[in-house]
Amino acid sequence: MGSHNALAATFGILGNIISVMVYLAPVPTFYRIYKKKCTDGFHSLPYLLSLMSSMLWLYYAFLKIHDGVVPLITINSIGCVIELIYILTYIKYAHKDARNLTYTLFAAMNIGFLALVLSSRFALNGSHRVKVIGWICDAVSLSVFASPLSIMIPNVGGFALGLVQMVLYGIYRKGSESEKEQGLGEGVINIVVVNPLGPAEVFPIAVDDNKVKDLVVVDDVTVSQQEKEKNVEAKDDCPV
Questions:
Q1: pLDDT tens-digit profile of 145-157?
Q2: Rounded to 10 degrees, what is the CA torsion of 125, 128, 130, 134?
Q3: TM segments (predicted)?
Q4: What pLDDT, in 10s, does the model give residues 212-228?
Q5: Hey, where are the domains in the chain?
Q6: 37-74 burial, b if ≥16 CB within 10 A, otherwise e?
Q7: Contact predicate 44/98, CB 8 Å
């Protein structure tokens, strides 16, 4: 029994050391914020959730105060202090909108924590209270690790719309048979006008393929066969 208690105490101390290192991991980030006097696009949600998790685990430890949970109380007390320092630093250097959002989330978090404590005190008895709070602590701890994924939220809509566009393109990229038949009689030709006093000019004109055959070149100008005949008749009518 003595060796078992010693092993549990050893792993408890190692767990606390690693937990402190995890709490101190954002220090370079907040040192950067302090140097630049700007939050630089960082979000406060992960630190708020970490504070909430530490508070819940601290409450859970006090519910089991007689079961040797001193390491749990120690590490989560340290975590509450560290996360609170992070949040205050963020509030100091964040712009107005981010600061107001942090205030709102912080207030909602504390109201929720207080409601949870009161409801568990009056609605649950001893053993059930410990189990329910323990499961809630596990869920919040999991959300702490998932909170950085909030950056994906703005991209979810774009991904869905892009996927819809790709599907629609795959369905309609070949077009219908009627559209193909309609497009067979259409074409584009370039009308080249030669100006003796300047550079030639090119005018693209959409025409039917049946009319392209009637186009000839007269005096360096592309015209239709009917216009050519009119030009010839006009020359024959010249006065003598």
A1: 766 665 566 666 7
A2: -150
A3: 6-25, 45-63, 69-91, 103-124, 151-172
A4: 444 444 444 444 444 54
A5: 2-156, 185-236
A6: eebeebbbbbbbbbbbbbbbbbbbbebeeeeebebbbb
A7: yes
